[in-house]
Amino acid sequence: MTMNERNRQDEPRGGPFGPGGVSRRAFIQGAAGAGAAAAVAGAAGWLVTGGADEFETEPPKNRIVARRASGSVPRDPGDATWRSLTSLAVPMLAQNMTTPRVKAPTIQTIALRSLHNGSEIGFHLEWADKAVDDIEAIARFRDSVAVELPVDPDRPTSVMMGQIGRPVHILHWRASWQSEMESGSRSVQRAFPNAVNEVTPEAVLGEEASRVYYPALYVGNLMASRKRTTPVEELIAEGFGTLTAQEDQRAEGRGVQSNGLWSVVIVVPISGSANQVSLKPGGMTRVALAAWDGGAGNRGARKQWSNWISLELES
Predict the structure, then answer these.
(1) Is residue 146 within 8 Å of 295, Cβ to Cβ?
(2) Is the overall model pTM greater than 0.90, yes or no?
(3) Please, is 151 exposed, middle or buried when counting C-beta atoms within 10 Å of its C-beta (0-12, 13-18, 19+)?
(4) Number of domains composing the chain
(5) 32-67 exposure pattern, b = at least 16 Cβ within 10 A, e = fewer
(6) Which has the least CB within 10 A, 2, 131, 172, 289?
């Protein structure tokens, strides 16, 4: 976590329960003012606590096996290899534990499949969404999906963005990033084709002198990048408001929307640095999902999320 947390839409900077998870006292106090949220949380069977060694003891009720592939993990969501795998229907919950909240989930379930080849692991995610929202602009938000994994598989952590000292590794695919890569542009004219095309600073001042007008771009903020190489961002978090981009961006992905369904593949190496998940064939870990419906106004914490799912890598 060496990069500064930057201006981003993906997570709020704080929450009513503080940056490091929820203590029992805070959870009870918060529940009095958020009965519906507490009811959903209790039904989901998860527990978030503040003590360094106090975590949920009940194993996740859902389980999926990442099957062993003999070759590379397919990047194409329509590849027949993915269809040959049994999917797990993952129920999604409305995020109403911290502001800004979602009143009810618009994405009810995500069909999850997983595959690995000993060096990288892939996740295939599929959910119903009739509209394609792949442009970010004023009052326009993008569809996206994320996979969350504990950095250390042997140390349980909160499904709510991890906990201090027990971080989570997040892989976030964005339809807008993929659209920018495929179209080769990220401009006001693309988002608003009927807008007046004004002169840009670099056209008048040159690229070097115009840097002052694009501080986010020139400090390396991935949210402002004009030259994307992947639609997936790797992040780390240790609780609400701590989401930070990884220094090393290795994940790949691709999404396809067809017949009212989004199908997305996210692939990442199974071994990483200290801030990245490291897995091994035959090993166990946990995985959780999050999804944003741009057409429903989802952004930041306004999202759907899942409880932890047991994940086994086939030997």
Answers:
(1) no
(2) no
(3) buried
(4) 2
(5) eebeebbebbeebebbbbbeeeebbeeebebebbbb
(6) 2
CA distance 224 to 258: 28
pLDDT by residue (tens digit) across 185-223?
Answer: 666 667 777 777 777 888 888 888 888 888 888 887 877
Number of other residues whose CB lies within 10 A of the CB of residue 218: 14
Strands 63-68 and 309-313: parallel
Rounded-to-integer distance, Cα 292 and Cα 269, Å: 25
Residue 4 maps to a domain = no
Structural domain contains residue 60? yes
| CATH assignment at residue 260 | 2.60.40.1190
Q: Which two tokens stand for residue 284?
A: 């166990």
Residue 206 belongs to domain spanning: 187-219
Kindly give the pairing relationship between strand 168-174 and strand 232-237: antiparallel
Q: Is the pLDDT of residue 177 over 90?
A: yes
Is the same domain home to 121 and 198?
Answer: no
**Phi then psi for 214, rounded to 5 degrees?**
-130, 60
Q: How many CB atoms lie within 10 A of CB 223?
A: 16
In three-state secondary structure terms, 32 is helix
Strands 244-245, 309-313: pairing kind:
unpaired
**Position 14 in a domain:** no
